[in-house]
Write a structure and sequence with these properties.
213 residues, alpha/beta, six-stranded parallel β-sheet
């Protein structure tokens, strides 16, 4: 009969009640050992260096220092520990930075006990673990290019250059031998790609990103 290897943990959360609950849950489950706790991002980095756990259970929003900053610092230091985010937040502003910083997984605090234990084992093995809601957000983010990441077409660049010169839609249409409706369509695409709301903002964004000038 084979036994699963012991997985060591560091629990990071600014709420003592949450830390106590997680400690009790893992200490009562076979195959886990809680090495310590931390109440902020900076403390998590320090404790991880001292204890060298297999997995860090990381909250994100903590008054003493964010979890994302801690994840980024652990990655920079080449820490052996895998970071599994455990939080109540699943917005894009929380999810994406955490994954980009180096988190191995991302779960919400309403995850069932068995799911959390399974996720910690998977994280310890280096496998990515995502709650369904977070997985959906990441897929949507990948499929939707961020403003400024989608290249402009040759025609869009021509329209943008003329806009930067203060040329009106009617004059652009006449110079490029297209209809005004087509000019407006190009402008709509430009605004989306540059993350701009109007002509002035589009020109400013284009200069800022080196597309013009």
């Amino acid at each position: 009969m084979t036994t699963e290897p012991l997985i060591t943990l560091l629990i990071v959360d600014d709420h003592p009640v949450v830390r106590d609950g997680l400690r009790g849950m893992f200490e009562s489950a076979p195959g886990f050992r809680v090495l310590g706790e931390a109440a902020s991002g900076p403390e998590a980095v320090t404790r991880a260096a001292e204890l060298d756990p297999d997995v860090v259970l990381m909250d994100l929003r903590m008054p003493g220092g964010s979890g994302v900053a801690a994840i980024r610092e652990l990655s920079r230091r080449g820490a052996r520990a895998k970071v599994l985010v455990l939080t109540t937040y699943d917005t894009d502003s929380d999810t994406l930075p955490a994954i980009e910083a180096g988190a191995t997984g991302y779960l919400l605090k309403d995850a069932p006990r068995d799911e959390l234990c399974t996720a910690v084992r998977a994280a310890a093995e280096g496998r990515t673990v995502l709650s369904p809601a977070v997985a959906s957000r990441l897929v949507r983010a990948v499929r939707t290019p961020a403003p400024g990441n989608e290249p402009l077409s040759a025609r869009e660049r021509e329209v943008l250059t003329l806009v930067a010169r203060g040329t009106s839609n009617r004059e652009i249409a006449r110079e490029l031998f297209i209809s005004e409706a087509t000019v407006k369509t190009h402008l709509t695409h430009l605004y989306t790609k540059l993350g701009a709301k109007d002509r002035a903002a589009a020109v400013a964004a284009a200069y800022d990103r080196g597309i013009l000038g």
